[in-house]
Amino acid sequence: MLENRLLTIKNLSISFFSNGIEKEIIHNISYHLNTNEILGIVGESGSGKSVSSLAILGLLPNKISKITSGNIVFETQDLAVLSSKAFQKIRGQKIAMIFQEPMSSLNPSMTCGKQVEEILFQHTKLSKKGVKAETLLLFEKVKLPEPQRVFTSYPHEISGGQKQRVMIAMAIASKPQILIADEPTTALDVTVQNDIIKLLKELQAETKMSIIFITHDLSLISQIANRVLVMYKGNIVEQNTVEAIFKTPKHNYTKALINSRPSLETRLKRLPTIEDVMNNSVGAEVITSELRAIQHKKIYNKPPLLEVINLEKEYLSKSGLFSKAEKFKAVNNVSFKLYEGETLGLVGESGCGKSTLGNAILLLNRPTAGTVLFHGVDITKLNTSQVKALRKDIQIIFQDPYSSLNPRLTVGEAIMEPMKVHNLFSNDFERQEKTIEILERVGLEASHFNRYPHEFSGGQRQRIGIARTVALQPKLIVCDESVSALDISVQAQVLNLLNELKENFGFTYIFISHDLAVVKYMSDQLLVMNKGKIEELADADEIYSAPKKEYTQKLIDAIPKGL
Asked: Which residue has the higher pLDDT, 342 or 318?
């Protein structure tokens, strides 16, 4: 049905240049997009999915990249040979794009309304009054609450999900024929992600535009796409209907993407990684409910390592320059116990207070009221030098390892730094030996000691962050969204590593995440937070199989489950 094809990519190859050396990263790929269709493109970072899509819009980085062969035919035009000036009539008007990170794509110095108006002024002949009316209509269409308020708000004044809706409003403002959505839900809560997926499907059904939806999550693709193509190392390894991809995947890489995500039904001791599946070496040791009960008996027969009693964290918020400051409780009367060797999962939507709770326990943000007992001592009453000593025992693994590592320090120096601060080992030689041992323990190499953070991939940097934490042999580690930015297979490697370290060193984790499938896999107990309070607290498996609260059920229902 060639007459139904809106976009045809034929034998496309793209090369990048570095130090005079040309490297081909997209290898002779061919696919098409039909009219009124949602096409999913799935693959990990570096697979070429985003680069090949940027080529459609003529947005490849200038001077360091080029299309070396092939055609990108939109209707009857070959976009591969189009001039920059000619692209201006297509970009935004006929083909639009939603980017992954709305905060870096939106102008922080302009109100949300003005940013949408700018596009309408450029691509339509509406009057000033008509442009404002159309913008408010678009905000209603993308289901933004209080469109008038969002119109006059700056990006930092609205939530992540709302920012993404503003981006979608901008993208559909000119009624494009093709919308490219590049990882539009990666950093969002599972419920917000679900809302954005529903919204895109509704907009597509209403406007009949075609969508290219790019993600690393196959389960998510199953909720939105008609057809899927799977990319691996710059090649398309498989393309078919969603049903065929899920039920009868042909390529090992596709099978690996499906199997690397934690299952909601079965709890494996070790998650299969892409490498395991590609090499046909998948282990399938299951942690049964009986085995889990034995482990829990050992854990819960001891006194608690941490006890949080009636904890509160209050902030003052002002709605205007001359208005009176109002008190806002980000954490409201929270109590729970945490035992040595346990992983407590902490979930809830953005703004529920989960990270604030983690920071209060770490004393990065001292609580306003309540008690935090660590080994029976109330740490909220410690002075500065006592808190510094406590830092050795309570550590954090951050979401973004790159911004938490000093770019001027080598990896070895970064890991040795906290050892020096806490006077661990007699000299630098002993610290270096220990650092190399830890690097190898987290799956890195001794040769990495003298390299800098920018020389590593996202997954490797997360391992470095973990190594830095492990170096102090802490009793308690708070993992704050520490795998949410990782590809699905790298995520599997890091989760396996955290569990191995827990087993070998007896670590205790508070595992904070918006990814409920991951939290279930990692957790013994699960604490669900909503608006600063505990909504539900019980065994993780019990909560997932029979949630008592409607809010918890809503979170579980929103998890992408595949077909």
From this structure: 342
